[in-house]
User: Fold these one by one.
Assistant:
Number 1:
Amino acid sequence: MSNKRLIIALDFKNIDEMSHFISSLDPQKCIVKVGLQLFISEGPKVLDFLSQRGFEIFLDLKLHDIPNTVRKSVEEISQYNVKLTTIHLQGGRDMIQAANQVKGDTKILGVSLLTSLDDGDTRELYNNDFEKQFNNLINLATETKVDGIVCSSQELELITDPSLIKVVPGIRNQESSDDQKRVMTSSEAYSNGADYIVVGRPITQAKFIEEAVKDYS
Ligand code: C5P
């Protein structure tokens, strides 16, 4: 992996909206994340667009399906210049292994429990408390040798496996009143063990984009 640790979430509607923003970014200083919205609206051409401009790409589609379908999807993803991509650990051992077998140079990150779920949800869904269910999924990530995981800053301390790459969203260096509830500053996240941080709106909506990138680098 390169020494870049800042991942900027390109949560834009389409390439038109995104292209003005990325002209302020230096591909040597950040990785960019393409999520469902941008990928659904533009398809794989957004990957070529970013790659041609020198960016390393995190394709965040959170795959969750039968092993054969995930294998074929990861095979497609690995044909593009994609550095990191996501699958749901809840897809189970066979699905994770299917993804691993065909990942090529792309690193696979497992999503554990979505940060929108709480203890009430995990009891309803799995008859288990949040922390136990989270630990089950992290153990599975370790056993299947997935490359890394996406987790909230509060969950960082629950992950003891040093070989897992830890990617952490929900980062705020200034007070904000948006929908992120459990937040941490970039320096706290790094000192608590994050390998990469994911930052969206504090940079995409900043008045001075280069300054904001510097603040989170
Ligand atoms: O704008 P903001 O910094 O909140 O963006 C964070 C990015 O990380 C978004 O693309 C969001 O979908 C993603 N993300 C998250 N929480 C997770 C997983 C991903 O905020 N648990």
Note: The longest strand covers residues 57-63.
Number 2:
Amino acid sequence: MTGPEICQDLDALQRRGATLETLLRRAVELLHQSNPRFHWTGIYELFPDNYLRLGPFIGAPTDHVFIAVGQGVCGTAVAERRNINVPDVRKAENYLACSTATRSELVVLIRQGDTIHAQIDIDSHDLDAFDPASVRLVEQVAQWLAGAYAAFQGPVPQPPKAVPR
Ligand code: SME
């Protein structure tokens, strides 16, 4: 599937009333299936305590369920507010190993303006697996998910007003 096709699928799911959790899970599935070089595909969500927490993923289980902002490739992407494409993880000083088979990694932020909601993290066993077309596809899905986060957050609920007697 292409990026726009994945976004159309997610649109249809959202119209049928899917929760954000379901949409995230579906996005991970479709991303993972979109490219045979994607060997581990997951979403880390950013929490107010400045920790990333692992959400849905496909691939080998990882010890890195919580990652502090600034740690590893994932935490560095948030700290530096940018997407990161690592062609050879063996040369990345800040890399946190998930699997010894991983050779390259891509992190794309799910953000709207200044607000970072989460990130898509993809590992490949191939060196330099993320060419411009595959990065673009992941960016398209990340952009769609940023819109979903905004839609689900909605207005902040207010406490009920006291009724004057
Ligand atoms: N490699 C990541 C850790 C997450 S695992 O790849 C799933 C990092 O350096 O932040």
Note: DSSP finds four helices and six strands in the chain.
